[in-house]
Structures are given as structure tokens and as C-alpha cells.
Amino acid sequence: MFRSGSKAKSLFKSVLRRDPSHAETWHSLGELLGEEGDTAGRLLSYRISSCLNESHEHYALAYSDALCNAGRKEEGFAWLEARARRVGVASRASDPWVSWIHALEHWGYPECWVSPQNIGEITPLRRSTGGTVGGRASRA
To answer: What's the mean pLDDT when you consider all of the chain?
Structure first.
């Protein structure tokens, strides 16, 4: 995406010195750092962009996906879950719910579908990978 990484990085840093709250620049810097193999830098940049613009679903999903790609799926799902829980009822703001559900499905957990109506039923679900992922409590 970026032909000259060092030039682009210099430009991003210049913008951020003038306006450190520019979410789009943080996100673009994260993309560049990811292309350079700097996972920690990518994660930090993506998290900052998502925090600066909490209503931007692309930034939230990019951060969650980067966490999942770094082997930190639970943390990525927890990030999206926290956003969905903050907005509460989906009729007030459905996008965070859709993002959380999309990430669960994309990363292979379609059985963990959640909604505001069943949110009280969500409990950790042990997977064969040894981790936990948000999922429905079983009703025996």
C-alpha cells in the first residue's frame, strides 16, 4: 500500500505532531506499521484510532482483527463486546453489535451469536484451543 515506508511514516508523524487526535492518521500509521511487521506498533496505532473515534466501526474491527491475527482473539472479542455493552440496547446503536457478531462469525465462532435479548446468557465458552470466547450458556 505504501511505496516508501519511511517517507510515509515521517508524514504521518508530522500530522500527528500537529494533531495527535487525528484518528484516521493513527489508523493509517497502523496499516503501515503492520506492513513493516511491527505488530506492537500496529496494535497501539489501531487502538488509539479506535479510542479517538469510538463510533467508527472500521477502526474497531481493524483493531480486533489485528489482535486476532496476533494470537489474541479473546482480547479482540472482548474489545468489541465492551463496545456493544456500552451502547446497550441495539435499537439505539446497532453497529457495535453487528461488528461483534461479524468478528465472532469471521473468526470461526458462529455458535456464539449474541443479541441484546440474550446478553444475560453470555458466558465464557471453553474451546479446544484452550481459550475462552463469549458464547451462550447451555441450558441443560
So the answer is: 78
60 burial (CB, 10 Å; 0-12 / 13-18 / 19+) is: buried
Torsion, CA 47, CA 48, CA 50, CA 54, rounded to 10: 130
pTM score of the predicted model: 0.69
CA pair distance 44, 124, nearest whole angstrom: 26
Question: Residue ranges of the domains in the chain?
Answer: 1-53, 74-140
Residues of the chain with pLDDT under 50: 116, 120, 122-140
**In the beta sheet, which residues pair with residue 39?**
none
Q: In CATH, what is the architecture of 1-53? A: Alpha Horseshoe (1.25)
> Does residue 61 contact residue 107 with C-beta atoms inside 8 Å?
no
Q: How far is CA 57 from the centre of its chain?
A: 8
